[in-house]
Amino acid sequence: MSKKEDLEVYWNKINYAFPILNGTLYSDCTNEEYEEIQEMIVSLGIQIRIRDLILIHIEKYLRQHVVPSFWSKFIKSDVEVKGFQLFKTAVSDLYESVTNFSGILHKLTLLNNSCSDNMPIFGEKDVLLGFKQLLRATLLAQLPLEFQYIIYFFYKVSFNVFDNEYENSDMGDDVMCSGCWNDYSDCNCAYIVKVFHDTNRKLMELQLLERLAGQVLTNFIQMRIESHIQKLCTGTFDVSHIAFLENWLDTTVMSWLTRIYCAGSSKPPPDDKNVQNAISKFKQKLSYYLYHSYTKLRIDQLFNIIIEYPDSQPAVDDIKLCLDKTDLRPTLCKNLQTALETRLLHPGVNTSEILTAYVSTIRTLRHLDPSGVILETVTKPVRNYLRNREDTVRSVVSSLTEDGAGSELAEELAKFAGEGDDENDKEDLWDEWNPDPVDADPKVNSGDRKASDIISMLVNVYGSKELFVNEYRTLLADRLLAQSVINTEKEIRYLELLKLRFGESQLHFCEVMLKDVSDSKRINALIHQDNNFEASNDKITCNGMILSAQFWPPFKDESLELPVIIKQLLENYTKSFEALKGNRTLSWIPHLGNVNIEIEIGVKKLELTVSPFNATLIMHFQDKPEWSLDELHQVMKVPVTILRRKITYWQSMGLITEKSTDYFVLVDGSDANKSNVSTNQVQEMICEDEEAESVMASAHDQREGELQVFWSYIVGMLTNLDSLPLDRIHQMLKMFASQAPGTECSLQELRQFLDTKVRTHQLVLQGGMYKLPKT
Amino acid sequence: MKVTVKSWTGVATWRWIANDDNCGICRMPFDSCCPDCKLPGDDCPLVWGACSHCFHIHCIVKWLHSQPQQQCPMCRQDWKFNNK
């Protein structure tokens, strides 16, 4: 036998044992035959070579036949059930062809055992594992672009069936099975479940489950989680959902997942560490996602949650819990800030509403984050915005001191009074200390952040107590003068509460104001006992409200000439007062106060409480039924514009009509009733208007008054230096005139002030230089 | 039409009838109170001297206590209370 023939025999035998070398899998070679052949190979000493050759051929076969036929079934399809079927076929075909390899693999294992080189096969020690590795590598190397579609359909169909099994039992009347969308008569849920578990088992065995379906599965479950959360949590903030959601994840989602991994059983096999690991990893991922999407949803709703606080406290608790588990703090800050800016901080919202929302925000975020860092970041734009609103202080002060709606602040004030100082408690809490969150501003003391309560946060909008106290004074003044019967006790209570917070000295003025009011009552009583005074007027009760001018805010400067009898009356009162209090006299502010009058028109009687202005006006009409605006102006010494505005009160009452332009006539008798009815609404409107108006000089006017201090300096400067630009004036004022407190003056303010002076011709502006006008 | 005024509540501010606006000692307005007082008017009245100068009573009493001679701080005449 020649050597060449020998070789041919050997080669044929090897081919007989390993048909893969010719591109097929089937051989009739029995185990005994193979043992012989292997002995032959070993005796020739070529076992390593043969093994490697076979591996190469296996790889080639997989690459050319198995894998393409697997992927060829991944056709993009719009029908879910078709996708389901395709994926199922693909997987079972793949599984089958892999099973066909078992003969070869068995032989190869034996052959490998005879090799003593211990070389790893595709990175694995074992031939079987190596083969699987090879299969996966080859498969994934040819991964088509859209392979996820049918996988997605596959899981969608099956998850539907599961959802159906768990969640609904009350849909009995429906003709369709909500699991597979078939009629109940040929519902194939059971079939789907079987196929599903089968496929999963095969994929698991091939170790392809995670790689092929993992992404789809995750996406799919995430989508389910999201839609579930959306369904569950929209609109209601008064229930905590987090426990419920966790439970849902544990039962529905996780049991489904376990079934996928464990081929149908709902419990993971206790001995298989791999599966357990995979499942617990998946669960971690999913619970994070659950928290994440839940928190995101809540963050989107946070503005509404804040508005509804404290009813929405469960939702806030949920967010608090989830914030620790996710990294959404910055998102929360940003989103809430944007929400506040778009929904709150624009001219369409009343200041009081902004304040209510601000207070709510403070409370909510306090609860959410006791360190106060989020609060500080989020409310910064709100504070900045409030600072620019003119009526902020007024709104705060009025809500501080009013009952009923919007009295949260009043409660807060009372609460503050109730709290003693709890300095001692703080010392015991040293072991509960927590560091500041990372996003905290290191420049701010954390104690400050925590300590500041709602009222001081509001006060801090402006940064100074004085503005608040001043505004409170104005408000108090308005209230004291507007009411005919004054509830002094209530005011004193508030004053005491405010004193606790702002300190005695700041509110000293207000104390004097309240004392003025009660003193006035006493003086009135004394004067009414005075016989001289009582004798001089028998009809009209005259009361005085006697104020200490130094302690009241400046009054608006308005002139009004009262009717002669009233003037006489007040003079008498002054005389009595002078007699009562030696060396003191009174100066009346004619336009303030209130008058009780009775009007008789025909048979009708009207009893009204009106302002001195309105009383004077109607009294003039009593003397003479027709007046032109000019005549009224001369009698009453009131500017025409104001007259025209205020006469509408009587017009709305139907007592006066404008016969022709600026000419007013008294309406008498029967006409009055008619017009009275029709104009009732107008009257209400105008009366409200009347009430809303403050008799005090506005804060702006007051500030103007403060700036007058500078005027003498400025005149001095300009007399000496002829002409100066704005910033020079500002600098010089800073140098000379800013020692007094409360007289800091920004460039902007100075410009405005100087502009008003230019307008009144007290200054001349020429080429950016201010000059005194030449006289 | 007949208008009857039943009651008239007017608003007035009180002031001292004095020949100056501010107290020469504490420089506060007469209508306000001296630095030691809280409430103006009855609780912190003015007094007139024979020399026609006037002060918050608390101010001048304090002044007189601190001086060896009883003189008006404005004109250095002997201080006498003028009970007018």
Automatic annotation (TrEMBL), chain A:
<dbReference type="GO" id="GO:0031625">
    <property type="term" value="F:ubiquitin protein ligase binding"/>
</dbReference>
<dbReference type="InterPro" id="IPR036317">
    <property type="entry name" value="Cullin_homology_sf"/>
</dbReference>
<dbReference type="GO" id="GO:0051301">
    <property type="term" value="P:cell division"/>
</dbReference>
<dbReference type="InterPro" id="IPR059120">
    <property type="entry name" value="Cullin-like_AB"/>
</dbReference>
<dbReference type="GO" id="GO:0006511">
    <property type="term" value="P:ubiquitin-dependent protein catabolic process"/>
</dbReference>
<keyword id="KW-0498">Mitosis</keyword>
<dbReference type="InterPro" id="IPR036390">
    <property type="entry name" value="WH_DNA-bd_sf"/>
</dbReference>
<dbReference type="GO" id="GO:0005680">
    <property type="term" value="C:anaphase-promoting complex"/>
</dbReference>
<dbReference type="Pfam" id="PF08672">
    <property type="entry name" value="ANAPC2"/>
</dbReference>
<dbReference type="InterPro" id="IPR057975">
    <property type="entry name" value="TPR_ANAPC2"/>
</dbReference>
<protein>
    <recommendedName>
        <fullName>Anaphase-promoting complex subunit 2</fullName>
    </recommendedName>
</protein>
<dbReference type="Pfam" id="PF25773">
    <property type="entry name" value="TPR_ANAPC2"/>
</dbReference>
<dbReference type="GO" id="GO:0007091">
    <property type="term" value="P:metaphase/anaphase transition of mitotic cell cycle"/>
</dbReference>
<comment type="similarity">
    <text>Belongs to the cullin family.</text>
</comment>
<dbReference type="Pfam" id="PF26557">
    <property type="entry name" value="Cullin_AB"/>
</dbReference>
<keyword id="KW-0132">Cell division</keyword>
<keyword id="KW-0131">Cell cycle</keyword>
<dbReference type="InterPro" id="IPR036388">
    <property type="entry name" value="WH-like_DNA-bd_sf"/>
</dbReference>
<keyword id="KW-0833">Ubl conjugation pathway</keyword>
<dbReference type="InterPro" id="IPR016158">
    <property type="entry name" value="Cullin_homology"/>
</dbReference>
<dbReference type="InterPro" id="IPR014786">
    <property type="entry name" value="ANAPC2_C"/>
</dbReference>
<dbReference type="InterPro" id="IPR044554">
    <property type="entry name" value="ANAPC2"/>
</dbReference>
TrEMBL record, chain B:
<dbReference type="GO" id="GO:0061630">
    <property type="term" value="F:ubiquitin protein ligase activity"/>
</dbReference>
<comment type="subunit">
    <text>The mammalian APC/C is composed at least of 14 distinct subunits ANAPC1, ANAPC2, CDC27/APC3, ANAPC4, ANAPC5, CDC16/APC6, ANAPC7, CDC23/APC8, ANAPC10, ANAPC11, CDC26/APC12, ANAPC13, ANAPC15 and ANAPC16 that assemble into a complex of at least 19 chains with a combined molecular mass of around 1.2 MDa; APC/C interacts with FZR1 and FBXO5. Interacts with the cullin domain of ANAPC2. Interacts with UBE2D2.</text>
</comment>
<keyword id="KW-0539">Nucleus</keyword>
<keyword id="KW-0862">Zinc</keyword>
<keyword id="KW-0479">Metal-binding</keyword>
<comment type="function">
    <text>Together with the cullin protein ANAPC2, constitutes the catalytic component of the anaphase promoting complex/cyclosome (APC/C), a cell cycle-regulated E3 ubiquitin ligase that controls progression through mitosis and the G1 phase of the cell cycle. The APC/C complex acts by mediating ubiquitination and subsequent degradation of target proteins: it mainly mediates the formation of 'Lys-11'-linked polyubiquitin chains and, to a lower extent, the formation of 'Lys-48'- and 'Lys-63'-linked polyubiquitin chains.</text>
</comment>
<comment type="similarity">
    <text>Belongs to the RING-box family.</text>
</comment>
<dbReference type="GO" id="GO:0031145">
    <property type="term" value="P:anaphase-promoting complex-dependent catabolic process"/>
</dbReference>
<keyword id="KW-0863">Zinc-finger</keyword>
<dbReference type="InterPro" id="IPR051031">
    <property type="entry name" value="RING-box_E3_Ubiquitin_Ligase"/>
</dbReference>
<keyword id="KW-0132">Cell division</keyword>
<keyword id="KW-0833">Ubl conjugation pathway</keyword>
<dbReference type="GO" id="GO:0005680">
    <property type="term" value="C:anaphase-promoting complex"/>
</dbReference>
<dbReference type="GO" id="GO:0051301">
    <property type="term" value="P:cell division"/>
</dbReference>
<feature type="domain" description="RING-type">
    <location>
        <begin position="34"/>
        <end position="76"/>
    </location>
</feature>
<dbReference type="InterPro" id="IPR013083">
    <property type="entry name" value="Znf_RING/FYVE/PHD"/>
</dbReference>
<dbReference type="GO" id="GO:0008270">
    <property type="term" value="F:zinc ion binding"/>
</dbReference>
<dbReference type="InterPro" id="IPR001841">
    <property type="entry name" value="Znf_RING"/>
</dbReference>
<comment type="pathway">
    <text>Protein modification; protein ubiquitination.</text>
</comment>
<dbReference type="GO" id="GO:0097602">
    <property type="term" value="F:cullin family protein binding"/>
</dbReference>
<dbReference type="Pfam" id="PF12861">
    <property type="entry name" value="zf-ANAPC11"/>
</dbReference>
<protein>
    <recommendedName>
        <fullName>Anaphase-promoting complex subunit 11</fullName>
    </recommendedName>
</protein>
